[in-house]
Amino acid sequence: MPAGRLRDRIALLTRLSGRDAVGQLRDGWSESSPIWADVQMIGGREQIRAGREVSEGQYSIRIRHRPGVTTAHRIRLEASGEVLDIKLAQPDQRRTWLTITAEMVDS
């Protein structure tokens, strides 16, 4: 894929865990620096759950290969601010590109 196709910016989110200086449990997400990506929405639907309308979207995201990306990470789309759960992170054979399948996080 030519670099010109990487037109979207994303951030990789890593869960923070452990305790702070006072001993309190920390729970949150650490954000990486911006990453150029090719983001494609591959499906979506709306449905009623627990009496409210819920939208779901599935995305295919392609970035340059980054070791260590797993389903424990999340992705934030910089353009919309949406947060996505990573369902699959699959490198190509030469480890040049990483294709990520992700879904919107229920809020």
Descriptive account of the structure:
The protein is mostly beta strands and 107 residues long. 0% of the residues lie in helices and 58% in strands. It has no helices and seven strands. A six-stranded antiparallel barrel has the order 1-3-4-7-6-5. The mean pLDDT is 87.
Uncertain residue ranges = none
The largest sheet is: 6 strands, antiparallel, barrel
Report strand order across the widest sheet. 1-3-4-7-6-5
The string of secondary-structure elements, in order, is EEEEEEE
Number of helices: 0
Please report the total strand number as a whole number: 7
What is the overall pLDDT average?
A: 87
| Overall shape | globular
Radius of gyration: 16 Å
Report strand %: over 45%
Helix content: under 10%
Distance between the termini: 34 Å
Overall structural class, as computed from helix and strand content, comes to mainly beta
Write the layout of secondary structure elements.
Elements: E1 8-16, E2 28-31, E3 35-49, E4 52-64, E5 74-77, E6 83-91, E7 97-104
Antiparallel strand pairs: 1-2, 1-3, 1-5, 3-4, 4-7, 5-6, 6-7
Structure keywords:
six-stranded antiparallel barrel; 0% helix; single chain; 107 residues; mainly beta
Summarize the structure.
This protein is mainly β.
